[in-house]
Amino acid sequence: MLELEGVHAAYGATPALFGLSLTVAPGQVAALLGRNGAGKTTTLKSVVRLVTVTAGRVRFRGEDLARLPPHRIALTGIAYVPEERRIIAGLTVEENLRVTRRSPAARAAWPIERAYDLFPPLAGLRHRPGTRLSGGEQQMLCIARALMLDPAILLLDEPTEGLAPAVIEVLGERLATLKAAGLAILLAEQSSVLVARLADTAHVIDRGAIRYSGTLADFRADRQATEHLLFVG
Amino acid sequence: MLIGLQVLGGLVSAAILFLVAAGLTLIFGVCRVLNLAHGTFYMLGLYAAYSLTTALHGLPGAFWLALVLVPLLWAAIGAVLEAVLFRRLYGVDVLLQILPTIALVFLGQDLVRAVWGLTPRLVSTPPALLFPLHIFGVTAPAYYAFVVLAGIVVAAGLWLLIARTDWGLLVRATARDRVVAATLGVDTGRIMTSVFALSMALVGLAGVLFAPIGGASPGMGVDSTVEAFAVVVVGGLGSVWGSAAAALGFGMLKSFGILVAPRFAVAFVFVAMAAVLVFRPAGLFRAPE
């Protein structure tokens, strides 16, 4: 469904991806693993065009995304949840959820109440400024906000970073529910908890290219082969 | 009695200052560009009102037509200007941003010199609002009260638009985080174009409203930008409500300053600005970042 093919990407004059190829199948969760600075964030950004793709192709449901600006890419069904939990300051929780421009179909599929059903803690906080939430609540809000697009795929950038194990547990459970409902996820992660729970395939990135791709089971069996790519030293 | 006159005069200044400053602060808040030519469009608004009412001389509704047409025309010009020029300036070094806006200031001044010359041009007060009004213990043309009322109505409308409508929500989101807004499907480019158009409509409206009071004269564009800039800085860059409060304060300060020291009335405004910035560097209504 989502195909990256020989993608080169750069921040200004600084290249960050070097011929990266990766495929996410419908309804599947693909884990993107790698050290800090390996290119996980850039990979997600190359899909939503927040970084310049200098060569290669990104296709979504067969459509080449190269010609689309970021907001049009979002409307094709790709929801991006950035790394540092970017709640829009000055907006309440509910306003953060309402920012999304979306089709009538998305409105019908994801009324705001469904976001509160998915993450009940948010319901009681709906009129609170979004920046005045705990880290876990902010992550829930960011994911819920992305879901308002009624996406076919969710790009998650290190969603568990800095969160308590209990919160990660809740997130994992909710993401599993969404996966069961047919949502595909490209999950960039450092920690293994969510990956073990959700992922169908694992892709190890190092220095801007995929060095290993396989099913999660294969990845576990081959752990020795990828260990040096994931850990320093 | 003198006090009443100063209060009314202060409110009129405040209304005009607010209309100009609101546009300046909106453009800065959403597009992050300081448009030094904003006051130039205020000046051109006055001249446009002059030409339009002169061309339609004899028509009783000429002024009202200008009051509607000029803001609409200014909005259209704003949309084009944003798409052709300002869009290229977003995120560029601040010096490079300011230079083209200074070019617009010169272009505007030359346009005024070429088309209207150096003589000040006055627009006559609409006959319907010529009657004397008793207000604050003084008798003043009803037109003054109309200008104040227009300022209040526009301020309230602007509040509704920004705080209560979907468009306003998208504007606030774009102002705070353009990148996240875009990943949520918001066409931030179109939002910025519409903000520019709105800001230009406001400054055009300010020009037409002030035309029967002060008339149009060549140097007023730069003066207006400088004053509006002071209002925007004191109110807090990007804060429309801050601008409203600061405009009110400055309008009064100017009006009463004339009583105390006529030659320094304008200077009072800048002394006040300096004083505010010493104690609240981010302005009155903006949390320091």
Short recap of the structure:
The complex is a heterodimer of chains A (233) and B (289). Chain A has 233 residues and is α/β, with parallel strands linked by helices.
Characterise the protein shown here:
The complex is a heterodimer of chains A (about 230) and B (about 290). With about 230 residues, chain A is α/β, with parallel strands linked by helices. Chain A has a single domain, classed as Rossmann fold, CATH 3.40.50.300. Chain A has eleven helices and ten strands. In chain A, the strands form two sheets. A six-stranded mixed β-sheet of chain A has the order 6-7-8-3-9-10, with helices on both faces. Chain A has a four-stranded antiparallel β-sheet with strand order 2-1-4-5, covered by helices on one side. Chain A is globular. By secondary structure, chain B is mostly helical. Chain B has one domain (about 1-280): ABC transporter involved in vitamin B12 uptake, BtuC (Orthogonal Bundle), CATH 1.10.3470. Chain B is about 75% helix and about 5% strand. Chain B contains eleven helices and two strands. Chain B has helices at about 1-30, 40-55, 60-85, 95-115, 140-165, 165-175, 180-185, 190-215, 220-235, 240-260, 265-280; strands at about 130-135, 140. Chain B has a two-stranded antiparallel ribbon. In chain B, helix 2 runs parallel beside helix 4 (about 95-115), helix 6 (about 165-175) packs across helix 8 (about 190-215) and helix 10 packs across helix 11 (about 265-280). Chain B is globular and about 55 Å long. The model of chain B has no long low-confidence stretch (mean pLDDT about 90). At the A-B interface, helix 2 of A face helix 6 and helix 7 of B.
